[in-house]
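User: For a reading group we're discussing how well predicted structures match intuition. Take Glycoside hydrolase family 3 N-terminal domain-containing protein. Before you show the prediction, I'll give you the sequence so everyone sees exactly what went in.
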Amino acid sequence: MSDAAELRRLAHRVVMPGFDGTSAPAWVRTAAAEGLGGVCLFGHNVQTPEQLRALTDELHAAGPLLVAVDEEGGIVSRLGAIGGSQHVGAAALGMAGDPDLTRQVAAAIGADLAAAGIDLDLAPVVDVSSDPDNPVIGVRAFGTEPSVVAEHARAYVEGLREARILSCAKHFPGHGDTRVDSHVGLPRIDVDLETLRARDLVPFVAAVEAGVDVVMTAHIVFPALDERPATLSRTVLRLLREDLGFTGLITSDAMDMRAIVDSVGLAPGCIAALDAGVDLVGLGNPVLGTPEGDDETTFRSVVDAIVAAVGSGELAPERLREAAGRVDALAARRAARGTAEDGAAVRAPGPAPPTRRPRPVRSG
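Assistant: Thanks. Here is the predicted 3D structure of Glycoside hydrolase family 3 N-terminal domain-containing protein, as structure tokens, for the group to look at:
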């Protein structure tokens, strides 16, 4: 790749940082003008509805980026950072046993996000809660039965789309059968591929069929597939592309989590994730402590590492272009879809984006 300016633009396009503060820092506005793919907002970025909308307007004015947030309802709610969520979480919806109610709740969450100027909801969680001692999924999951989780996953994706909000199924290929939180360590799930296919992948198949926009990877090792964490594994991501037929954008879970930082390091992990097939690397929550010291330094170190990796041949320029192209396509889809605030009828979302129908997961 000979054009240095274009290379840096593409490197910006595949990164989604967080930042400190309740208004956009100068470095974020500069990065947005240089092609930044997205930002992820956290509870510390939110004070009031008016402040949040002013922030998202400021971000969108700075460049063609996506504004994302973890808004699951229940215990994981950025809009409810002060006072708690107004919406029940996945476990309650699963116990209610009514996918149409799940669709309505997701549409209501989507309406709140549209009012706030958010583009992408990093939800739903479609993990099957198969270990009762799981320290990080628990009530964030719709239940313990794959078929039940699949029904609610489909409904949740449809509900967000009714509100013109992009959806994200997480955490591929499944975080429900672990007793280690990937925020603090590197989990392993020692099940065979048949179990993975019959249990964990079922809700992801349903989400793909429903037209989910984004799939988020898990920082978990599945020895039946690869000894590398799923986020860094071509084998695992090939499963998502080739067997489940997903053609949309793949994003990573936060790359500042200990599962990545303590095993390969933040910047090397981002390079490995992109090389494996991730399209947009999320850097995580800078308020919790960044490996490079502050939000701006962490972001710039990752962009510089991507540029250097292309220059050294570690990361193929074609892979970087492909990843950036998927970010562009998602941003264009979001713009074309509009928002419920544009005056379009909430119950007329239009067709889901095309995907190939998933094929049965290979056993080898």
